[in-house]
Amino acid sequence: MKDFNFYAPTEVVFGANSEEKVASLIKHYGGHKVLVHYGGQSAVKSGLLDKVCGLLSDGGVEAVKLGGVVPNPRLSKVKEGIEICRKEGIDFILAVGGGSVIDSAKAIAYGVPYEGDVWDFYVGKAQAEVCLPVACVLTIPAAGSEMSEASVITNEDGDVKLGYSNNISRPKFAIMNPCRTFTLPPYQTAAGVTDIMMHTMERYFNPDCDMTITDEIAEALMRTMKECVFAVLKNPEDYRNRAQIMWAGSLAHNDVTGDRGNGDWATHQIEHELSGLFDVTHGAGLAAVWPSWARYVYKENVSRFVRFAVNVMGVPNDFTDPEGTALKGIEAMERFYHAIGMPINIHELIGREVTDEEIKEMVRKCSRNYTITQGKFKALKPEDIEAIYRIAK
Amino acid sequence: MKDFNFYAPTEVVFGANSEEKVASLIKHYGGHKVLVHYGGQSAVKSGLLDKVCGLLSDGGVEAVKLGGVVPNPRLSKVKEGIEICRKEGIDFILAVGGGSVIDSAKAIAYGVPYEGDVWDFYVGKAQAEVCLPVACVLTIPAAGSEMSEASVITNEDGDVKLGYSNNISRPKFAIMNPCRTFTLPPYQTAAGVTDIMMHTMERYFNPDCDMTITDEIAEALMRTMKECVFAVLKNPEDYRNRAQIMWAGSLAHNDVTGDRGNGDWATHQIEHELSGLFDVTHGAGLAAVWPSWARYVYKENVSRFVRFAVNVMGVPNDFTDPEGTALKGIEAMERFYHAIGMPINIHELIGREVTDEEIKEMVRKCSRNYTITQGKFKALKPEDIEAIYRIAK
Questions:
Q1: Are the C-beta atoms of B298 and B330 separated by less than 8 Å?
Q2: Are the CB atoms for A103 and A153 separated by under 8 Å?
Q3: Which of A266, B58, B212, B239 has the most CB atoms less than 10 A away?
């Protein structure tokens, strides 16, 4: 059994109207002047941004706004944020939005006290020692960034999408009001649940597979997400199931369902190049990659895929044919993706076949110029990554 | 669905030899001079105490030792610790032991900066605003105190056992080395698992019962504990199952399996008076109480007890007889307790029947002189508490 660290210090404040506590929480965590960071669509339209800014003002917390974060958040916006924070003497960053906004907020938080280029952290040139405190008002359950140490940023200069993980950026608090997710469109809802499940699947398909309690918790989370997503697609204002999805988004990525460091993550890495190149929704990209990854690697540990098929996907266990059972689990996942409106290959994701040149470019980036492997369940060499893109195309 | 807060900031450092990191962790969390707090039996005999003190010395952390904590830790020892910390200028408390030692360490941590009597916090006369930082090297998986905000102390003056909960005392880090639990005797091992399962059961039997994901995670934990305990009773050096029990001890009490504030806790409160009066092992006391509590309250929500019977205890669901299924679940739990050497009533716990006078005294204390009810699944008045003691006697 692998050693592990578990560290999830974020205070989760969960419930209808939980945003009412935003000013007192910021003050509790030492903030005086806040950058309110957001995207620009739902947070504005829903009135949440105005509400949060009003609550801050009423609570005596000074705020400067910076919107315009896009999915696959851009380095240029991060740098804009860093400049504003320095100029305005900001000491706390509040993300109002989903994973992209929180990831952008973390990057700004790293950059403010750092003399060099914040991109240094993402390319591995430097380690952040300090950062501004970050917190969030979550509006999209998906990325799990609200409790995680991870931030993924896209550098437009070369379309490079890279992640940086550091415990110091874990949000101080995360305000989660399930009502704020009622207006999420079906596609974003389904992509979010896909992302949530995948954060647990990446951990579940690990090279050791020897913690029954963690496996059972992971299976519990994946099974319940399958139920909850259909309930909220049918009734978007189903508070209880919106709440379960929102909470699962954090649990799936705070290491309760497995140690992040021991997980596979190849599907995420392969997808990063897809969404970097085609700017697709991350969760949908994951659905487009996973079945091909699964078919390519399942023979590494058939019994793990059998367990997944039976305990998560509800496939009857055919003891005479473990490989058949394993494959039926992958097929069941494809049917699930289709049922919630997700793609199961790149063609369905981007509306055309990906070209040979595009595949080669993604393989090159995914393998960092053919220097590294991806994944732990099976360590994928560049040729393996290419094979998976071809199966998925 | 109830709103909730989730806050589990303790850094868990889990694995064989994890104690090697003790000095660097203390320095990371700002400690310079440490009170090493312990019981006196296993930590000394096993060499762990000497090892920890050596590691602290090698790491340049000054340490003062205070042993002698007993199960159901005493207020007099807490006061001794407070005096030492003040005299020695100690700024960090490291508990080396199980729940009793950690609870005692938290009480000392509250007391050092407080001008009044530390017992004020436990009787509700005052709220602690600050405390010294606490951390632990865990040796007994049971109480969950290594990640929790709770501390239970017994005041010898009147034999009053009371708990105080405050987020500021949550340990900064918890070092968990499953090898350190290999020498736990079978009775302590079984009582520990009983306590772990009960922390989840207290949450599972709540008045709302409406979070499928939390229920499934809770059931996963309880099911796996039932397996793991038999494995380690058979082979005390089974690392994997010792590790699962150790990690479950934290998960069961860090609110992943349910919000503490929404749980029932009547069994704990009823047991507190038992272990206060007879100084029995807390986990064994819980086993002696729970079946009687369950029989007394199950009609409040039969379907919850049916779910427990089927999903945790593996009882076949007789759809024609929900009450029968519920009762079979309670009986199955009694058989499980017996199988791991735990009592199922007070007679088995203390070796004799409890007297009428003793019951009356426990009812009086448990109901705080007949002023409060206990429990949320069913709010128990003094006469209900008395009835349960009588069923359990």
A1: yes
A2: yes
A3: A266
Q: Which of A14, A213, A220 has its CB closest to that of B5?
A: A14
Q: Measured between beta carbons, which residues in chain A are less than 8 angstroms from residue B1?
A: 239-240, 243
pLDDT score recorded for residue B219: 98
A223 chain-B contacts, CB cut-off 8 A: 216
Residue partners of B187: CB distance under 8 A and separation at least 6: B281, B284, B341
Cross-chain residue pair B12–A15, CB shorter than 8 Å: no
pLDDT for the residue A40: 82
Q: Which residue of chain B comes nearest to A248, CA vs CA?
A: B213
Question: Residue A196 CA to chain centroid, in angstroms?
Answer: 7
Distance CA B121, CA B105 (A): 14
- CB burial of residue A51 (10 Å; 0-12, 13-18, 19+): middle
pTM above 0.90, yes or no: yes
Spatial contact of B91 and B29, defined as CB atoms under 8 Å apart: no
Query: What pLDDT shows up at residue B361?
Result: 96
B12 to A5: CB separation less than 8 angstroms, yes or no: yes
Mean pLDDT of the residues in chain B: 96
Q: Could you say which residues of chain A have pLDDT below 50?
A: none
Question: What residue type is A170 in one-letter code?
Answer: R
Question: Helix (H) and strand (E) counts for chain A?
Answer: 16, 8
Confidence of residue B131 (pLDDT cuts 50, 70, 90): very high
Q: Which of A11, A212, A213 sits opposite B5 (nearest CB)?
A: A11
In whole angstroms, give the CA distance from residue A183 to residue A336: 22
For residue B8, the Cα-to-chain-centroid distance in whole angstroms is 16
Residue A260, both tokens: 């992040």
Residue A212: which of B13, B244, B251 has the nearest Cβ? B244
- For chain A, the residues whose C-beta falls within 8 A of a C-beta of chain B are 1-9, 11-16, 18, 210-214, 216-217, 219-221, 223-225, 227-228, 239-240, 243-244, 247-248, 250-251, 256
Question: DSSP 3-state assignment of A158?
Answer: coil
- Which member of B3, B13, B224 has the closest CB to residue A213? B224
Residue B41 has pLDDT above 80, yes or no: no
Percent of all residues in chain B with a pLDDT value above 90, rounded to a whole number: 93
* Residue with token string 């020498």: B183
**Residues A6, B5: C-beta atoms closer than 8 Å:** no
C-alpha dihedral sign at A385, A386, A390, A391: negative
CB pairs under 8 A between A and B: 109
Taking only the tens place, the pLDDT of each residue in A186-227 is 999 999 999 999 999 999 999 887 889 999 999 999 999 999
Set of chain A residues whose Cβ sits within 8 Å of the Cβ of B219: 220
Residues of chain B positioned with their CB less than 8 A from the CB of A219: 220
Between chains, do B212 and A227 touch, taking CB under 8 Å as contact?
yes
pLDDT mean over B43-70: 96
Across the interface, do B221 and A213 touch by the CB < 8 Å criterion? Answer: yes
Pairing of strands B4-14, A4-14: antiparallel
Which of A7, A213, A220 faces B216 most closely, judged by CB atoms?
A220
DSSP for A83-116, written as a single string: HHHHHHT--EEEEEESHHHHHHHHHHHHHTT-SS
> Is the CA virtual torsion A275, A279, A285, A288 positive or negative?
negative
Chain centre distance of CA B252: 9
pLDDT band at B158 (very low <50, low <70, confident <90, very high): confident
CA–CA distances in Å: residue B220 to residues A212, A213, B100, B155, B249: 9, 7, 27, 37, 13
Higher-pLDDT residue of B158 and B231 is B231
The pLDDT of residue A11? 98
Distance from CA of A263 to the nearest CA of B (A): 17
